[in-house]
């Protein structure tokens, strides 16, 4: 009788265990009371937590397509992501243009770095300020002479690791230096990271570049040349309110080739942008207004995300049983 009793008890235990497991398994599959459905079968929809709010990235400039209906002999641009060092731009961003006054930011920086521990005299300070803020040719020339003339340009090429820049043949004239947009953003980065002016003067130089004054029609003489135009005009408030944008433009009317030579440079902690071009006089031949608009257009097209662009939030699929 004992074997039969044992067998009966075993069968009873299996039946009781099965009865207890079925509700537990069903609850696990159906989600308990959280799911709806007729008789608890079918019709249930898995609840997925709503995605956490996504903070949109701060607007910046980033590599992207640029389309300009440019009417002239030469047009190019380059953008450096200063966080990665990556340079993007036009296919011809290694081609060159004369730097004109854009190079004055380097001339000032080079002189200040060369001071070492010596004090900056009132006269030299005034020259440094006006060379950048007013694009004063006489002030830039004085600092260029103080730096040794051609060695100022040699140091630029070496210290900023430029690959396309050439000093104008038989001349040490700073304005005639041939530089590509690719090298121009390298120069901008060189000024921004402290290599150009050194730790003591870098913030000072960038601040002067952020306070360039005079509009595109303010060309009065070699001592006062309006320089607050171009890239800065193409940037939305969402970028300019993040912090100062340091700029230095360069231009000349009817150079040796009878063309306007216009360059724009802007430097921020995140990026540096250069736009360079040559074109015949058109419209108002006394001002670089056409080139200023081209520079602004390039900057606007590189703004990321574009103003008014909807932020795309990835949606999580809702699962069904």
Characterization of this structure:
With 321 residues, the chain is α+β, with helices and mostly antiparallel strands. Helices cover 34% and strands 13% of the residues. It contains nine helices and ten strands. Strands 2, 3, 6, 7, 8 and 9 form a six-stranded antiparallel sheet that branches. It has a two-stranded antiparallel sheet with strand order 1-10. Strand 8 and strand 9 form a beta hairpin. Helix 2 packs parallel to helix 4, helix 2 crosses helix 5 and helix 3 crosses helix 4. It is globular. The protein starts with a helix and ends in a 17-residue tail after the last strand. The N terminus and C terminus are likely disordered.
In short:
With 321 residues, the chain is of the alpha+beta class. 34% of the residues lie in helices and 13% in strands.
The averaged pLDDT comes out at: 84
The computed structural class is alpha+beta
Task: Count helical runs.
Answer: 9
The total strand number stands at 10
Helix and strand sequence: HEEEEHHHHEHHHEEEEHE
Shape, principal axes of CA atoms: globular
Portion of residues in beta strands equals 5-15%
Query: Could you estimate the helical fraction of the residues in percent?
Result: 25-40%
Compute the CA-based radius of gyration. 33 Å
> What kind of sheet is the major sheet?
6 strands, antiparallel
What distance separates the N and C termini? 50 Å
